[in-house]
Amino acid sequence: LGTGDLSELVLGWCTMFGDHASHYGINAGVPKTLISYLIRWTADVEFKEEPDVRHVLHDILNTPISPELLPHFQGEILQKTEEKIGPYELHDFFTYYFIRFGFAPTRIARLCFHAFEGKYDLAAIKSWMREYLTRFFKTQLKRSCLPDGPKVGMTSISPRGDWRMPSDASAAAWLKDLEKIP
């Protein structure tokens, strides 16, 4: 089973022919923000009477997302994914409106600015959207040969049904639209 989720696959945040080439992508249709929500809900609702389990689940949620399998010798996490590629809550927002509705970057940025009012300014949204679009287009070759996986929500990047895109597609038109954002 492959553990990569929709958020990681959209950004190409997987090892080609490693975790990316499993027999079945069990989380391929689930964005990272939904996984976090479900863990939090499970901790607070299903395990509300079991503080030890609740504590472990909240500890998992409070641990920065990282591809590191082992902690540094001093126990710290050296590579924090969101510091490198941006907040998953923004990327999942971009994915929903870009893939599900085909919205242009300027429109997505405007929606994002209002949805996250006060949390991210327009410059941060623009910067992380540039990272998103660049990664999305550069890593299409990884998505063209994804293993089967469930379609959980309305947004999917399965090359067998929902998302067809040439591996050498260019992000130029979307990046040009992005530059219209002040």
What are its keywords?
mainly alpha, Arc Repressor Mutant, subunit A, 9 helices, 0% strand, NAD_synthase, NAD+ synthase (glutamine-hydrolyzing) activity, Rossmann-like_a/b/a_fold, ligase
Spell out the blueprint of helices and strands.
Elements: H1 6-11, H2 32-46, H3 51-62, H4 81-85, H5 88-100, H6 105-115, H7 122-138, H8 140-143, H9 172-178
Explain this structure.
The chain is mainly alpha-helical and 182 residues long. The chain has one domain (6-178): Orthogonal Bundle (Arc Repressor Mutant, subunit A), CATH 1.10.10. The chain is built from nine helices and no strands. It has helices at residues 6-11, 32-46, 51-62, 81-85, 88-100, 105-115, 122-138, 140-143, 172-178. Helix 2 packs antiparallel against helix 3, helix 5 (88-100) packs across helix 6 (105-115) and helix 6 packs across helix 7 (122-138). The radius of gyration is 17 Å and the shape is globular. The mean pLDDT is 90. This is NAD/GMP synthase domain-containing protein. One of its GO terms (molecular function) is NAD+ synthase (glutamine-hydrolyzing) activity. Keywords: Ligase. InterPro entries: NAD+_synth_C, NAD_synthase, Rossmann-like_a/b/a_fold.
What's the short version?
With 182 residues, the chain is mostly helical. It is 49% helix and 0% strand. Helix 5 packs across helix 6 and helix 6 crosses helix 7.
